[in-house]
Design goal:
Layout: H1 3-16, E1 40-42, E2 47-52, E3 55-60, H2 63-75, H3 95-108, H4 113-130, H5 141-155, H6 159-179, H7 209-222, H8 224-236, H9 240-243, E4 251-252, E5 257-259, H10 266-271, E6 276-278, H11 281-290, H12 315-324, H13 326-329, H14 338-348, H15 353-360, H16 366-374, H17 377-384
């Protein structure tokens, strides 16, 4: 046979009749290591469990007993059949039970008192709308969205308050599904329930002395609790954060002063000195009126319509009352700005700057000097005439 014909025949057969060669199985480059068995507590089933040699075992809720059984199976002294155990039935919990567990968890993780009150306020509102006996695993996204839209419209919540409400609900269900497995599905994990970032609202102008007096007259009969809080800010020059955190145990009636603790005092955080609020006769009258029928651990100023157990005033709640009164008053009352009015009145009354800084809790004279510089020319001219 011609050599060219032979080469062509071999080439033709190689394409038309492929040859399959069976190779031995290859070992993985990195052999997988079996997962070491360990004892885990399943909060959804409320008991300990473990997977041993591919088989699921359940040991009950008692740790000591579970540990003994677990070690006995590992050592082989406790014989079990090859069939995997059936897991116990899933036990659903009510919304009230879930919120109670969440608040207890926050306290155990040393969350600040104000943070816990913030969660309690929003989540108690959520419970009031949904119902305390509602099964937590039956709550869906549509129901939560209905709650948010209804309550925000009814209470005239600002955008930031609405976002805070959503954050509280998201934290609750994240705790239930990701941290504890109390629920199998998170109903608010969808992007449709996105919270977004907080936005800075437009600055509310500082009220005038006449506007504060008009607001006091308006709330005198409509909301006496808020009225007393406004009066206290106006006559004491205190910060809103200080006034709403005053407890009866902080008050020394005989010495006419209030000694705030570390957490409530901005002055302590900046200078290391505790904040003392000195009580004039007008302020003392407000304090004595609000101390009636309360215990040492109670807050001095309470919100009668609050859902939380302490009924402490939350800034957003107080501002909400002011927003509702905006049309009747003709202006939006800036609660934080009342302190500015009080300081201005002290300056115009001729009180020396050092005494004012002590009364209102400023660390130094810098802030008081800024107030003095911001007074209008007419008042400065009147002051100059006294020289």
């Amino acid at each position: 046979m011609d050599i060219g014909v032979f080469q062509f025949t071999i080439l033709f057969l190689s394409f038309s009749c492929p040859i399959y060669i069976s190779l031995p199985p290859q070992k993985p480059l990195y052999p997988t290591m079996p997962r070491k068995s360990a004892l885990y507590f399943n909060q959804t089933l409320n008991q300990y469990s473990s997977t041993i040699k591919g088989k699921k075992h359940y040991f009950g809720a008692d740790l000591a007993s579970a540990q003994v059984k677990f070690e006995a199976i590992l050592s082989g002294s406790l014989k079990t059949d090859n069939q995997e155990e059936e897991p116990p039935a899933y036990k659903s919990i009510t919304l009230q039970q879930l919120v109670n567990k969440f608040i207890k968890h926050k306290k155990q993780t040393n969350a600040a008192d104000n943070t816990i009150l913030w969660y309690e306020g929003h989540l108690n509102t959520f419970i009031g709308f949904i119902g305390p006996t509602k099964k937590a695993d039956s709550i869906n996204l549509a129901l939560v969205q209905q709650f948010v839209s209804t309550i925000c419209k009814k209470r005239d919540y600002s955008l930031n308050t609405e976002k805070g409400l959503k954050r509280a609900i998201r934290s609750l269900f994240a705790y239930a599904t990701e941290e504890t497995n109390l629920l199998l599905i998170n109903p608010v994990k969808s992007r449709k329930f996105a919270v977004g970032s907080y936005s800075k609202s437009e600055a509310i102008p500082i009220p005038t002395d006449e506007e504060v007096k008009k607001a006091i007259a308006y709330f005198e009969t409509r909301n006496p609790a808020l009225c007393d809080l406004i009066k206290f800010l106006y006559h004491s020059g205190s910060r809103l954060s200080e006034a709403r955190n005053i407890k009866l145990k902080d008050i020394d009636i005989n010495r006419k002063r209030i000694n705030l603790g570390k957490a409530e005092s901005k002055q302590y955080r900046t200078t290391g000195k505790k904040r003392t609020i000195y009580l004039s006769d007008k302020v003392l009258e407000i304090v004595a009126r609000n101390m009636k029928d309360k215990e040492a651990g109670d807050y001095l100023f309470i919100n009668p319509t609050a859902n939380s157990q302490s009924r402490q005033w939350i800034p957003n709640s107080a501002r909400s009352h002011c927003r509702r009164a905006k049309d009747k008053l003709g202006f939006l009352l800036n609660l934080r700005g009342i302190r500015h009015v009080a300081i201005t009145n002290l300056i115009l009354a001729g009180v020396d700057l050092l005494s004012i800084s002590k009364l209102v809790g400023h660390a130094n004279l810098t802030m008081i000097q800024k107030f003095y510089e911001e007074l209008n020319a007419e008042h400065l001219i009147d002051t100059a005439n006294k020289i």
